[in-house]
Structures
1.
Amino acid sequence: QVQFVESGGGLVQAGGSLRLSCVASGVDFSNNHFGWYRQTPGQQHELVAVITTGGLTSYTDSVKGRFTISRDNAESSVYLQMNSLKPEDTAVYYCNRDIGGRPVYIGHWGQGTQVTVSS
C-alpha cells in the first residue's frame, strides 16, 4: 500500500528556514521521481520541486534559489530545505511520486505538513 508521511512544518517568521521530510512506503523508491507539492485552501496542489532518480532537480520559479530538494534512497525519503521563507510560501506541503510534473498517486496523499510564514 502506497503511503507518504510528511513532517517538519511549523510556524516561522519571514526570512526563516524549515526542512521538510517525507518517508515513502509501498513504492519502488529508487526507481522513481518524486516531487514536493503545496496546497492552499480552495486551490489545487501546486508543484514546488521535483527530483529525478538520477538526482536532477527542478523548481517552480517562485522558489528557485530558496528551496532545495534532495533524496535518500536508503531511507526512502525526500527532503525540502526551505530558506528565506516568505508569507506566500504558507501552505500545506505534500510529497508524491512524480511523472512529468504531475503527482501519480492522487488517491494516496499523506496528511501533509503545515508551513506558516508570518510577516
2.
Amino acid sequence: QVQLEESGGGTVQPGGSLRLACTTSGFTFNRAAMGWYRQAPEKERELVARISMSGTTTAYADSVKGRFTISKDNAKNTLALQMDSLKPEDTAVYYCNYNYYGMEYWGKGTLVTVSS
C-alpha cells in the first residue's frame, strides 16, 4: 500500500535552515507528481510546494517563494524540501502528499518550529 513518511523536522532559530525528507513506497514514484503541505496551529492545511513527476516543474506558495526548494529523487523514491531563511510564521506540521486521480495520500507529518 502507499506509504509516506516525513522526517527532518525540529526547532530552529529565525533565519536558519532545515531539510525535510519524505520516503515513499507502494506506488510508482517516478510517475507521481508530489507536494508538501503544512498546517499551523488553528489554521487550515495549506499547499507549500508542488513538483511534477519528472521533477522539472515546480510551484510554490507566495509565502515561501525564494526561500524553499522542493526536489524529487526518482532513484531513491524520496521527496525533499529545503527550507532556508526560516521565519516564525513557518512554524507548522509539514506533510508529504501524493494525489492519485483524486485519492489523497498523506504522511503523519513532521513538526517544524521556528523560534528564538
3.
Amino acid sequence: QVQLEESGGGLVQAGGSLRLSCAASGIIFRITRAGWYRQVPGKQRELVAAITTGGVTNYADSVKGRFTISRDNAKNTVYLQMNILKPEDTAVYYCKLDYASGKLYEYWGQGTQVTVSS
C-alpha cells in the first residue's frame, strides 16, 4: 500500500520560511515524478513545483526564485523549501507522486496547511 506522509506546514509571518517534507512508502520512489500542489477554498488545486526522476525541476511563476523542490531517493522523500513567504502562499499543500507502467499511477498525500500572516 502506497502512503505519502507530509509534514512541515504551519503558521509563519510574511517573509519567513518553511520546509515541507513528503515521505513515501510502499512505492519505488526513484522511478516516480514528484510534485507539490496547493489549494485554497473555492479554487482549483494548482501545481507549485515538480521534479522528475532525473532531477529536472519546474515551478509556477508565482513561486520562482522563492521555492525550491528537491528529492532524496535514499530517504524516499521529496521536499519543498519555501522562502520569502507571502500571505498569498496560504493554502493546503499536497504532494503527489506518479509513474507510468502501462498506465499512469498517481498518489496524493493528505495535505498540510501553510498559513502566512501579514
4.
Amino acid sequence: QLQLVESGGGLVQAGDSLRLSCAASGRTFTNYDIGWFRQAPGQEREFVAAISRSGFPSYAGSVKGRFTISRDNVKNTMYLQMNSLRPEDTAIYYCAARGRSYTPWDYWGQGTQVTVSS
C-alpha cells in the first residue's frame, strides 16, 4: 500500500501564498503519477493539478498560472505551491496517486484544509 500524508494547509488572506506537501511511503514513489484534488463545502471533489512519473505537469484552468506542482523523488514528496490565493480556493486539499496514467486514482491522503479569507 502507498500511504499519503498531506501537510501545509492553513488560514491565509486573499493574495497570499501557501505551499502544500504530500509525503509518500510504503511503495516506490517513482512508480506513480501523483496529483492534487480539492473539495469545497457542498461541492464535488475536483481536480487541481497532477504530475506524471516523468515529471510532466497538468493543471485545472482555474489554477493555471497561480499554482505549481512539483515532486522530489529523493524525498518521496510532492508539493503544491499556491500563489495569489482567492477565497474560491478555500477547500480541503487531497493528494492522490495512481499506478497507471489515465486510470482512476488508487490512493488518497486524508486531506488538509486551506481557507482563504477576503
